[in-house]
Structure formats: C-alpha cells, structure tokens
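FAQ: What does the model actually see?

It sees only this:
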Amino acid sequence: MTDTAQLRLAYLVSQYPTTNHTFILREVRTLRGLGFEVQVASVRAPDRPANQLTAEEREEFGRCWYIKIAGIPGALAATVRTLLTRPAGLLRGLALAVSLAGLNLAALARNLFYFVEAVMAGDWMRRRGLTHVHTHFSSTVVLLLERVFPVSVSMTLHGSAEFYDPEGFYLTRKIAASRFLIAISRYGCSQMMKSAPYRDWEKIEVCPLGVDPEVFAPAEFRENPAIFTIVSVGQLAPAKGQPLLVSAMRKLIDRGRRVRLRLVGEGPMRCEIEELVARLELERDVVLEGALNHDRVRAIYAEADLYALPSFAEGVPVVLMEAMAMRIPCVASRITGVPELIREGVDGLLVAPADVDALANSIERLMDDPALRRRLAESGRARVMEHYNLQRNAERLAEIFRRRLSNDAEKAGPARVGY
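And it is asked to produce this:
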C-alpha cells in the first residue's frame, strides 16, 4: 500500500459540495492531483441546485454518491445485503448505536438514523472495494460503520463543538476506533489528548488546513478609502458573533466614521441580525449578502479594506486564511486555534471575545493607520504562504495517509504533533 497509485480512499461527509466547507472539496481534489484515488460519499445533496454550482462543484456533484438521494430503497437494499454478508457486524453496529444512547430517547432516534446511514455507506464502500474511510468533523456514522464492516477509519477534527461536549459527541470512543486522527491546530491536538487515554495519543497528527495563494491572490490596497469596507464571511449562527460586529458598526458611525459592513453567509440568526440592523438604523451601512459561490466571495474580498471575525468558537477558520492570502488586514477573536494563525500585532489584531468596544477600537485603529494595515496585510499573506499553503499541507496530509495506511504503519513510531 506504499505505492500512491494503490491508495484508495473513501471520504464520507455530511454535505458535498457546500459553501460552508469548500476546503473539503479543495482537499479532495488536491489529493487526487497527488495520485490518490478518492471517492466521496455524502449524506446530503449539495446546498444549492446544480445550476448554481461552480464548474468544479458540478464535477464533484457528478462523481459523488449521496445517501439521502438513495433513499428508503437504497437503505433497504444495503441492509439486506449487509444482513446476508455480515450479520454479526450488523448486530454489533446496532448494539453500539443503542448502547451509546443509553436512556436518552432523542439520542437513540438519532443513532438509529446514523446506523442506517452507516450501513448504506459501508455497503457502498464494500461494493467499490474501499477499505479505508476518512471524514471531517466528529462523525458518529463513521464510528458505527467501523463496527459493522472490516474497514479502517480516520477523522479530521476541527472543533469546537466536539471539544466542548466530548461525551455528547462520543469523542473518546471515536478516537479509540480510529486508525489515526488529524488535528488542524495544536489547540485541537491538546483537546483530543484531553479526551483520550495516553495510549491513543500516538494516533494524533497535526496537519493544518490551507488555501491556494494563487487563487486567493493579493487584492489592491486602498490607502485612504472614502468608505472603509469591512467584510465578514461565515454562517449566521450564534457562535460566529456577527451581532457584535453590527454593534461595533454603530459605535464607529457614532464617532463620525464612514464605514460599510458586508456580511456573507446564511443561517438561523439572519432574522435577528436584520432586526438588530434595523433597530440600530444601519440599513444603509450593513449589507447581508447571503450565501454566495466562492468566486463571488473572492470578488467581495477584493473590495475589502479589513476582514473581521468576532467568533466565540472556531477551529482555525479557513476564511481568515483566505483573507490573509489576499493581503487583507484582519481583526479576530483571541480564541481556540486562531492565535496559531494570527500572531497579535504581527499578522493581524486579536481582541477578547464578546468585547464590542475592543472590536470597534481595533477597527478604528486600523482605519487611522494605513501603514499598520499594510504591514499586517503583508505579514498575513506571508504567514499563509509559509504555514497554510494548500498544496504543501495537502502533501503533508498525503504523507500521513501513506505512512499510517502502509503495511508497516505500526513501525512508523510516534506521531509528530508539531509543525
């Protein structure tokens, strides 16, 4: 299995492609470019109709297999085939789904759905001769799949939900069941170690995500823009903290600043954010752009004077890497893995989470100091080029797959948890 051409991987993801997780698509395509065969299965169909996908996304849509599109007939057929070929495995997986839920009926219902999805995904792998499955995020489907079928599994864990509730996400069980795990930051590595017995620490590898610095080429720097444009990209969800950014806008405008905020993304907080914008009388100053394809997002980045991320919970945000690669100065919350990406005062400015005054003051500081903006922007792009380059980090991920999945993986020695 040491020959790259012989490495055949299944990727199992919750939705593919999707605007929220374009990094998975880039990772899959880059691994294929490195000689791997990667087949993707997704629980759900893409988040947009086919005619709204980019050319790359349409190509991936045509290659991907979808669990929910297979529907009830697919579930019944997969279950029958598995019952005939792996009856003991089927019972082991069902027993695990039930035991994980305990007396929690809601958890039991979820786990039974996950069990059916696991059977369908495992049957899909068996029919294609795939023996290793990789997933991003903490997947209970993959945990159950491993119990039913004779396959190995690996996971890339991002945080932060599974790190805040490791018991609810069965994190210790998932680490134990995995051949190896990828942490996208040292912070993530530490949280996985916290949830795992010492004997499992050697399974953990640190491999950051990355962006293509040629695709995210530097934007034009505006020394003294007439209207200072702030951009923030992310799901409109409580963890992202966009209301803080809207409130900071009110403070800046009250100080006589000419600013505009463009929020890119959709989510459950859209109505609340719209109400806040109206209450603060910011309808002309805050634009909710909605969910956009990545080519359109890049165009909005190119018009930004500053990128702001006021999140309460993150892994290491790819959107920050994208903005930094485009030489846009950034202000972000000092949380989780973010300080590994942005060094305070070197690659950007970091503020305490939930501190709207600090957020407004940092934005204002950069508005008043074009030289500082330029220096942070230049350093930010250099930081991405050195540590968060997609090609380089995909090559590192490929090396991990080769080493961990080779026949002598047990002889490879302890994992390297630094970078």
